[in-house]
Every structure is written in structure tokens, then in C-alpha cells.
Design goal:
With 108 residues, the chain is mainly α. It is built from five helices and no strands.
Length: 108
């Protein structure tokens, strides 16, 4: 569902995301986002970004930008039209709640 990378949108002034419900976001993500971004926020399509661990404010801002038309993507523009502010907050809370670990090469 979400395609957030590579559209030239600077994350400089992200609006604060209202508190969402990660459980509700998980249900919504499973119904709408998993086809592109995976059940766990790790993308299954090469052109879709990983959303696991993404800051809620950033995710919410990008969804709001898609919904308003400020940011454009063929699929995301359509999908975001059906999202309420509560849906956006819930999705953002879900993806932020997923813990991600990174391993730097050569540091094990």
C-alpha cells in the first residue's frame, strides 16, 4: 500500500502524528498494505519501501501528502483517498511499533 521512498519529499518538517492504535493499524495494514509492503512491514516488491520501524510522524505525513495530492504515486494516491485521519494514525503507529535491527557489515 505505501510507497514512501524516492519521490523527492524532504522529511524536514513532519507534522506530529496523533496517537494511533498499533493493533488497529496492524489489521488495516494486513488488509491493504501487505501486498506491497509485506505483513511485517518488510517490502515484498522491489519498488516498495520497507515500513517496519519507520517513525510514525513521517509515515503519517507521507500518507497525508498522498491523500491531499501534494505527493503523487499512481497506487498510493488512490489508496490514500479512503484513509481517514484515524486510519493514518493507526497505520503509522503499527509500522513504528515494529522493531528493526541492523547489522553493520564487518561488526559481528
Amino acid at each position: 500500500m505505501l510507497v514512501l521512498a524516492g519521490a523527492g519529499v524532504a522529511p524536514a518538517q513532519e507534522p506530529a502524528a496523533s496517537s494511533g492504535d498499533p493493533r488497529a493499524g496492524r489489521r488495516l495494514a494486513g488488509a491493504q498494505c501487505a501486498a506491497c509492503h509485506g505483513n511485517d512491514g518488510i517490502a515484498v516488491l522491489p519498488e516498495a519501501p520497507n515500513l517496519a520501524g519507520q517513525k510514525a510522524g513521517y509515515t503519517a505525513a507521507q500518507l497525508q501528502h498522498y491523500r491531499s495530492g501534494e505527493r503523487k504515486h499512481e497506487l498510493m494516491t488512490v489508496v490514500s483517498q479512503a484513509l481517514t485521519d484515524a486510519h493514518i494514525a493507526d497505520l503509522a503507529a503499527w509500522y513504528e511499533a515494529i522493531e528493526v535491527q541492523a547489522t553493520v557489515p564487518g561488526r559481528r
